Amino acid sequence: MSGFRHLGDRLVHQGYIWHVAVAEYESPDGERFQRDIVRSPGAVAAVPLRVAADGSARVVLVRQYRPPFDDFVIEVPAGMRDVPGEPTEITAARALVEEAGGLRPGRLEHLIDMYPSAGMTDSVLTLYLATDLAEVPRETHGPEEAHMEVLDLALTDAVEMVLNGTIHDAKTV
Length: 173
What we know:
By secondary structure, this protein is of the alpha+beta class. About 15% of the residues lie in helices and about 45% in strands. The chain is elongated. The relative contact order is 0.20.
């Protein structure tokens, strides 16, 4: 439909979850070009929302070390789709138990599928709203999760953190 054609990929690096390819394309006028692409199974994220005793909305975020930035990033709990064939709802629920201080959602509502970085990866992130949260034992995986901080914030404070530039993470924004 667009007139662009994907002619193929040449594998440059095969990692545990992602791989990097040099992909070759042809434009509608016949020009051939290449692009580096990170091929990904995708990810899921969930916005854990609670209602406090006073009726105000609260959200659970995590402050996690992210090696590409060599810094801590505040974000909604998320996880890679690293279990082949696992439904995104199951991955989202697992990510909450692993990251959000041990929360199991009673309800997950699909919000959106988005392209977190369309210029460099084919990753699709599926975002859910998680409600009716129950506390369960936390199951961390890896040093980043073992050292992350769980933040229970007023939703209005989290929105203000986005607006004032404290939160930079795309899926959280």
